[in-house]
Give the backbone structure.
Amino acid sequence: MIHAQIIGSGAYTPERVVPNDFFSKLVDDADEWIFSRTGIRERRFAREDQSTSDLATVSALEALKNAGISADEIDCIVLGTSTPDMSLPATACIVQKNIGAKNAFAFDINAVCSSFVYAMEVADNFIRCGKYKTVMAIGADTYSRILDFEDKATCPLFGDGAGAAILRATGDDKGVLCTYMRSDGHGWPLIQVPSSGSRKPVTAETIAAREIYFKMSGKSVYVFATEVIPEIIVELCKKAGIQTSAIDYIIPHQANVRMIDFIAKKFGYPREQFLLNLDRCGNTSSASVALVLAENMNNGTIKPGDLVLTMGFGGGLTWGGLLIRF
């Protein structure tokens, strides 16, 4: 059986560090107020001259270096993002040009914070079908460009970043063992940028109404997340024919530490079993899982033989996960 094995990964977060105190104009004692509710201490914001493709390019080049292959060997680039450089063309094509992947085809995928997990699903299926050998999956976002800095409920949550993983066909039992992907379009109003496309084009009126910025129904999204996170874990373990206790590490979407505490308590997992960068990076949306995966592959935390569950959830509503043997 063909499996898609991760042969290299890369991560990039911008150099600008934005501490919680940056939001002091919105709330008193901002550091404690934000940290106690989310677990976030700081996040990274891109420079004015950096776009999503720039962040993605750095992570892609690092992934190539760590995989020990050239860009010519990439058959396909799937880039997950909800903050593309522009509405068209695909940001993935800009990354393709930047890294010199002349033999690849490239396209974007948007499942909001689930985008990297969805991109990995696509890459896994492309490889499993036998048509492509080497696929690059990227998760990248620059939410600092779409945040409403007058909305204390959302703007402190997010940061910018990018992560990339290169998957290659293998005949052994390493790689992506199984996946679980879902969506529910009934929940699309819960996470949106109201004026950003053909449904409600940008006008002077929508700008004045601040409808060009990110909106989220926080309480409803929290309820949604705490319902689907256990579902992802249970269904993936059921597909793999293992107990939930067999997982070595979990890489959850880095949204809120309270959600992670909820999972830990429900399944009896120690906090150390969760690989996190939430305190340093905030919610990096599409880059969230990709960043943590790359960080922990490259710092030696994830070792050969480890069984790792990755999961994402976000706008759409979308959710899903992968079980990976390293």
Remarks:
- The chain has a mean pLDDT of 97.
- The longest strand covers residues 160-170.
- DSSP finds nine helices and 13 strands in the chain.
- Residues 1-326 form a domain with the Peroxisomal Thiolase; Chain A, domain 1 fold (CATH 3.40.47.10).
